[in-house]
Amino acid sequence: MVLADLGRKLNAALSSLNRAPVVDEKVLDALLKEVCAALLESDVNVKLVASLRQKVKAKVKASFEGGADKGKETNRKTVVQKAIFDELVQLVDPGVEPYKPKKGQPNVIMAVGLQGNGKTTTCTKLAVYYQKRGFKSCIVCADTFRAGAFDQTRQSATKAKVAYFGSYTETDPVAIAAQGVAKFKKERFDVIIVDTSGRHKQESELFQEMVQIGEAVKPNMTVLVLDASIGQAAEAQAHAFKDSADFGAIIVTKMDGHAKGGGAISAVAVTKTPIIFLGVGEHLHDLDKFAPQPFISKLLG
Ligand code: GDP
């Protein structure tokens, strides 16, 4: 089920509450069953869904017992709707503030992720995003593994009018990353984005390389670029990267496609790491800033 369908189903479940003459445990259970089924169909982790159900029930029960409903059905409905809304927000909010780049100093952002997830595209989108907001931005292509990676960076950075650094001859990604970051720091760039190699699988070699690049460029923030269309596999992938690269933020790409999105959402909870942007298309400006509450509000329409 794609994300828009999830929104529709959640919305339908919540509005069914308005038609119920009384809000009792039976009505709440039926509602939660619908909400949980919709989340599961969207690939949200089964444990997270079970925990959401339990938390909503506990909250509603405490509210009713505390007299928050004051016996009125409309109040009871509001209590239930708010509890579900808040728990949906909790699903995508690990309660951790992501790093915020500051002007007038170098902010090094390192992007990691498997090949094809949209890392190179996202690096350019990020550079454009910050450049538009007055940060002098640039990209360092430290991907020496994939033939054509530097060409891709060169083309998209040129199109985006963003400075870039890379090499056709140097084969050591750590050396390129270090040189590029040193050069751009000297030239007083505010946002320096380092694009690393992505392999097809979670190979140990890829992780070692990331760790070495990280040691060389000391990023202020490491971002995991995660493809929404990989479904439940997102969780395991995020786990593997967290163990070796310890990223501090997630960007979920391809949210415009037929992605279910729930797998990527679960990766937030599993790694306790915030999503900072969503990739919503192939173009340079197709990057939406992410915030938990507006995301759930929009999802519910
Ligand atoms: P990398 O191997 O991780 O660097 O991935 P690329 O940046 O080369 O992207 C792989 C493919 O995904 C390309 O065809 C991109 O245009 C596409 N892509 C990246 N981000 C998005 C997105 O947010 N939405 C859509 N629809 N496609 C995307």
Automatic annotation (TrEMBL):
Keywords: Cytoplasm, Endoplasmic reticulum, GTP-binding, Hydrolase, Nucleotide-binding, Ribonucleoprotein, RNA-binding, Signal recognition particle. One of its GO terms (cellular component) is signal recognition particle, endoplasmic reticulum targeting. It catalyses: GTP + H2O = GDP + phosphate + H(+). GO terms for biological process: SRP-dependent cotranslational protein targeting to membrane, translocation. Residues 274-287 form the SRP54-type proteins GTP-binding domain. GO terms for molecular function: 7S RNA binding; endoplasmic reticulum signal peptide binding; GTP binding; GTPase activity. The keyword GTP-binding applies. It is found in: Cytoplasm; Endoplasmic reticulum. Signal-recognition-particle (SRP) assembly has a crucial role in targeting secretory proteins to the rough endoplasmic reticulum (ER) membrane. SRP is required for the cotranslational protein translocation for ER import and preferentially recognizes strongly hydrophobic signal sequences. It is involved in targeting the nascent chain-ribosome (RNC) complex to the ER and is proposed to participate in the arrest of nascent chain elongation during membrane targeting. SRP54 binds to the signal sequence of presecretory protein when they emerge from the ribosomes. Belongs to the GTP-binding SRP family. SRP54 subfamily. Fungal signal recognition particle consists of a 7S RNA molecule (scR1) and at least six protein subunits: srp72, srp68, srp54, sec65, srp21 and srp14. The NG domain, also named G domain, is a special guanosine triphosphatase (GTPase) domain, which binds GTP and forms a guanosine 5'-triphosphate (GTP)-dependent complex with a homologous NG domain in the SRP receptor subunit srp101. The two NG domains undergo cooperative rearrangements upon their assembly, which culminate in the reciprocal activation of the GTPase activity of one another. SRP receptor compaction upon binding with cargo-loaded SRP and GTPase rearrangement drive SRP-mediated cotranslational protein translocation into the ER. This is Signal recognition particle 54 kDa protein. It comes from Rhodofomes roseus.
